[in-house]
Specification:
Elements (H helix, E strand, L loop, with lengths): L1 H8 L3 H59 L3 H14 L3 H13 L3 H14 L4 H13 L3 H13 L6 H18 L3 H14 L4 H13 L3 H12 L6 H13 L3 H12 L9 H20 L7 H25 L5 H11 L7 H5 L2 H22 L4 H11 L8
Helix pairs in contact: 2-3, 2-4, 3-4, 4-5, 5-6, 6-7, 7-8, 8-9, 9-10, 10-11, 10-12, 11-12, 12-13, 12-14, 13-14, 14-19, 15-18, 16-18, 18-19
Length: 397
Amino acid sequence: MTNGSQVGAVLTSDERLARRKLILRDAISLLTLFLITSVLFALTWLLYQSFTDHEQVLAVRWKARGEEALRTGNPKAAINALRSALAYLPARGTEIELATALAEAGRTTEATAYFNTLREEAPGDAMINLQLARLAAKQGDESLAVLRYQEALDGTWAGNGFNHRREVRLEMAGYLTSRHHLDQARTQLLIADSNAPDDPSIKIQIAGMLEQADDLPDALKIYRTVAGRHPAPIAAFGGAGRAAFALGMYRVAADYLGRELGHPEAGSLPADQLTADRGMLATSQRILDLYPALDLPARVRAERILAARKTARARLTACAAATAAAPAPLASIVTRWAQNPTRLPLDQLEQQPDLEQNILQLVYDTETVTAQACGAPTGDDALLLRMAQNPGAVEQE
């Protein structure tokens, strides 16, 4: 039995050949399936990569178009382009640009909602807070605008955060000035000045904003510092001259306005500025010619006081004649003039400093009261009124 079974199990050569063919065919079939699958996988991967790469190329292309539209002041086109870019490749930077485009297009509500959504993900993002500050300012929400500006100052910036913070602080100061919060604006500007690099253009920008915030003394200080550089920009001379003129510091004003108008670049200044600055220079020089400075020779000082006395008396006479019922301040001035001698010798005035001061004060009070009662004066009366507003500043250095 055993021998018979073993003989029955022995395969013939044909059977063995058939078996080998079957195994080989199955192996080839499996290998073919594997190769086909591999090829299909490779083709699918290549197609996917090609599609992904194409999407990225399209995203970059649409993003570039959107950014160019923003730069050229076409926010509507930027919105469409940036939305297309986001459809191909979502990216936070593109989302911020889209929200910016919405804001510039005047779609304030959409832009605010978009930026607030972005802010929830990154509350410390300075750029987002800056945009929200601008939107709040447009909507008239002062408290929220100031809060967001402050958060932009405290937030995280990409790139040069130092420069970004200075720009935000100046923008915030400009907004506060426009809303008549001058004390807060001055605080921000002085902080910006203390942190600013030694760059004349930045210093002059800050000084100009201090002028707008009605901080003329600090503006003048910055202008004079920049004007002390070698070479000094012409804007520093003009700024210092105008600030000094507004403060009644006519000697300083004459100095800096003269240096501005004598500068080689003066011809490039706007015509209206040149006209205004020439007028201020002429006014300053005339005031200095009229002003009875303490360091003048006694006779020259006395002559100037008598000339001012004559001018003020004529102004009072004309004003009183034109006023049917003189107000109390004007009547009081008339009484004070009546108590002074009509004729006052020059020698007598030279020898009595107290009398000089009394007459000078009467002149100043006369110009002030007559301006209130009879309107703005002209000629030397207008200049005496300027002197009366701050006599101690006229020749201040």
